[in-house]
Design goal:
The chain is α/β, with parallel strands linked by helices. It folds into 2 domains: about 1-105, 3-Layer(aba) Sandwich (Cobalt-precorrin-4 Transmethylase, domain 1); about 110-215, Tetrapyrrole methylase, C-terminal domain (Methyltransferase, Cobalt-precorrin-4 Transmethylase, Domain 2), CATH 3.30.950. It is about 30% helix and about 25% strand. The protein is built from 8 helices and 10 strands. The strands form 2 sheets. It has a 5-stranded parallel sheet with strand order 3-2-4-1-5, with helices on both faces. The longest helix has 13 residues, at about 85-95. The chain is elongated. Keywords: Cobalamin biosynthesis, Membrane, Methyltransferase, S-adenosyl-L-methionine, Transferase, Transmembrane, Transmembrane helix. Pathway: Cofactor biosynthesis; adenosylcobalamin biosynthesis. GO terms for molecular function: protein methyltransferase activity. This is Cobalt-precorrin-7 (C(5))-methyltransferase.
């Protein structure tokens, strides 16, 4: 059995009681190394398998082979159903391949953490993710819909600046971007920028970043 557990946006206290119970009762713990390291759980008699992008395929095969005979907790940043659909599709396919039961435990996503910080309801924004391999969404069709955007940029140091450049090219240069890095972590950083100014910046940002975009009249 494999449990895919949403462990929240950063603060370890935001994980659910159910998730903690499953982790404690699992014999194998896996997930991205940075996510596993956030938690001080009892590692006695547990096998820890940190994932990395270079060996992702091989390590996931190992994890699912073990899940045929053991309970496995897969720790996933935020919520498994928010901005992680490519990985979740892989896990579902592997569960079928290995004939392993899979269960998804929801968590608090960075989307919800950012909305709480901003004091905005989810129904008032359009959410877009750039955490994908291959083509991304066409921003233009969303910029003209009358709602502000909440965007997870590509997880690279230049991801936010690249987003600002794209926004400026599509007529949102006078708009604003509220860049929220590492929300709910002790060292979270939130800063507001003008799109056209950030597009010319060389600033680097964390891979744990979410951006609120308001283009106003988009002139």
């Amino acid at each position: 059995m494999i449990y895919v557990i949403g462990v929240g946006p950063g603060d370890p206290e935001l994980i659910s009681e159910k998730a903690i119970k499953i982790i404690n009762n699992s014999e194998v713990i896996t997930g991205w190394k940075s996510v596993i390291e956030r938690f001080n759980f009892d590692k006695t008699n547990k096998e820890i398998i940190p994932l990395n992008y270079k060996q992702e395929k091989e390590l996931l095969e190992i994890v699912f082979e073990k899940a045929k005979y053991k309970n496995v907790a897969f720790l996933d940043h935020g919520d498994p159903s928010v901005s992680d659909f490519e990985l979740m599709a892989k896990l579902r396919d592997l569960a079928k391949k290995y004939n392993v039961s899979i269960s998804f435990i929801p968590g608090i996503s960075s989307v919800l953490a950012s909305l709480a910080y901003l004091g905005i309801d989810l129904s008032k924004v359009i959410f877009i993710t750039y955490h994908v391999r291959g083509p991304t969404e066409d921003l233009q069709k969303y910029l003209n819909c009358g709602r502000d955007l909440l965007i997870i940029p590509s997880p690279y140091p230049n991801g936010v600046v690249s987003l600002a450049k794209e926004l400026e090219e599509k007529g949102c240069g006078e708009g604003k971007m509220i860049v929220m890095q590492k929300l709910t972590y002790p060292d979270q950083v939130v800063k507001e920028y003008k799109v056209k100014e950030l597009s010319k910046s060389n600033e680097s940002f964390s891979d744990l970043t979410i951006v609120y975009v308001s283009c106003g009249d988009k002139k």
